[in-house]
Amino acid sequence: KAAGRNTYALFGEHMDELLRTRRALEQDLRLALREGTTIEAVFQPVFASDTGELTSMEALARWNHKKLGPIAPDIFIPLAEETGLIADIGQIILDDTCRCLVDAPSTVSIAVNVSAIELASPSFPLRVLSTLESWEIDPSRLELEITESVAVEKRGAVESNIASLRGAGVRFAIDDFGTGYSSFARIRTLEIDRMKIDRSFIQDMEQSGNKELVSAMIAMAHARGMKITAEGVETLSQCQALKALRCDNLQGYLLSKPLSRDMALSKIGSDTSE
Ligand code: C2E
Ligand code: CA
Ligand code: CA
Ligand code: CA
């Protein structure tokens, strides 16, 4: 019994500390957003699998905390979602994306991750379109990545926002395909331009049966007139297998890590499409 109480006391203290840490991090995030210098986008190149050409990039949020150093998006994005700060981060990333698109060849597009909360917000389409307009960027050069679970909640709001943005030329991709619930069933009812196969499927591709699964995803995307990207490509054999399966685009550490804006732009300049 004594040990039991002890465990609870420890648990309680630990929870307290976690909550304090979380509140402190939230404060820091608010401050970072107000100052506007420590949160920015990096860009991971995406390549056409047939020509090897750099066709697009994915914008990924980075927070360089003044004292703690880099904080992973898996930590600060959920925190921002829970504290109502996600739209502010989304706007920073969208502005960084436009700044990069302005200096990139017009054939290059950039994909931006959108959280469920942003996508369901009534002001979202106008915010995106007016940002594109102020940078004089063609909406077809922006792709928005959403997850399948997003699409389940607030279905009406999400669908009408997708429709108005697609009407203006913005493209949509389903991110982390295969990891959500109702994957295949859900995709049928959404107007989507691309699927991104989650990297867990790519990592396991060498194991028996998994190549067939990836092949089925590619066939399904193509049958529905969608493009398909494999993410998390880390080895040459994964790369070759995906090329053979006619996966349209490839992304992963084997091809390029996420890069700063300047590095990404110089990579486009030097891209010779092997
Ligand atoms: P995601 O959208 O699935 O992004 C892909 C993640 O995989 C990125 O992690 C990227 O750096 C990493 N990655 C790319 N290639 C490889 C590879 O070959 N191997 C491995 N192991 N990883 C690879 P990152 O940048 O840490 O982002 C994590 C997640 O945070 C993202 O997953 C996305 O869900 C979220 N996120 C990042 N930026 C934003 C943003 O601006 N807005 C929102 N709403 N979410 C974001
Ligand atoms: Ca993504
Ligand atoms: Ca993904
Ligand atoms: Ca993800």
TrEMBL record:
**Where do the EAL domain residues begin and end?**
22-272
Superkingdom assignment: Bacteria
User: This protein is called what?
Assistant: Diguanylate cyclase (GGDEF)-like protein
Q: What range of the intact protein is shown?
A: 449 to 722 of 730
